Amino acid sequence: MAPSRDEEPMDIMGALLKGEVSKVTTEENDIVERLAFYLRRLEHRNANIAPEERPSARTRPKDARPKKKVTYYLTKLIIHHLEDAQQGLLKASEGEPKPRISKSMIVETALRMALQELDAKGPKSRLFRRVHEICHKTTKSHRVSKTPSGEEVQ
Question: What is the pTM (predicted TM-score) of this model?
Answer without folding.
Answer: 0.49
